[in-house]
Amino acid sequence: MPNNNRVLKHRKQLLYWLLVTGIMLLLVSCQKDVSTTGSDINSSEFQQGKESTNPSFKDRIEEAEGVSLGEPSTLTRSEREELKLNLIGSEIVKCGLSEKEYLEGNVVSFHLKNNTDMELYYGAPTGVEADINGVWTKVYADLSYNDMAYLLEPNKKVELDAYIMEKLPTGRYRLTKEISLVNSTDSNNQEEVVLISDPFIIR
Description:
By secondary structure, the protein is an alpha+beta fold.
């Protein structure tokens, strides 16, 4: 009989420790679940906050040093397609149909070709427009230019650099160039034209 009491006592102690151990394991498991869920929520909240603070293309341009956005452009393609402002350069990569890519912070090179029988005059400044939500918008930068007029004779070509692009963030742009076409035999016969490049990408 005493032996039976000892066996029962031993069994009770074993069950007690098993119960206590089970409760402790359950508590540890619950704490891990709470910790994991909390970190997931925090990570999600952080990600959402990060996404919500990503600046738009417009904001990135306006935040660039020495750069400001102007009014929406009213320019359309010139009727003189033979004077198209073409983009060239060793770093261009084809991207889509007429789009090209440049690396951010680099100068964008382009060329003008005078396919007319008139004298073509151009200045140092090169305009740029940004595609803001499908609307071409003028972009201005604090750059100094000389006010000289350069001559491009008929059937000649010149390569130029748009230094303004060094200041601009990633996005979709196009260049503009104001030129004057002057009849070589009659200086009063002249035409003002704004050339527009194909769109290109800064990445």
